[in-house]
Amino acid sequence: MSNPTKTYLCIVCGFVYDEATGRPEDGIVAGTRWADVPDSWACPDCGVAKADFEIVEI
């Protein structure tokens, strides 16, 4: 049984990172787990660090 993907929300601007779709325009392929997103990655909308995201259920 596989683990479901999760979704993370930027607490500053509301941008959503979905593990199922990744962020191909930033080189993060679909299915990339949040833990595997580089720590240097920043929110594409407001530029805050990965640490400023929270897990959400949509």
Automatic annotation (TrEMBL):
One Pfam family linked to the record: Rubredoxin
GO molecular function: electron transfer activity; iron ion binding
All residue ranges annotated as the Rubredoxin-like domain in the record: 5-56
GO biological process: alkane catabolic process
Cofactors: Fe(3+)
InterPro entries: Rubredoxin (IPR024922), Rubredoxin-like_dom (IPR024934), Rubredoxin_dom (IPR024935), Rubredoxin_ET (IPR050526), Rubredoxin_Fe_BS (IPR018527)
Record note on cofactor: Binds 1 Fe(3+) ion per subunit.
Listed CDD domains: rubredoxin
Keywords assigned by UniProt, alphabetized: Electron transport, Iron, Metal-binding, Transport
Pathway info: Hydrocarbon metabolism; alkane degradation
PANTHER family from the UniProt entry: RUBREDOXIN, RUBREDOXIN-1-RELATED
Family: Belongs to the rubredoxin family.
Function: Involved in the hydrocarbon hydroxylating system, which transfers electrons from NADH to rubredoxin reductase and then through rubredoxin to alkane 1 monooxygenase.
Name listed for the protein in its UniProt record: Rubredoxin
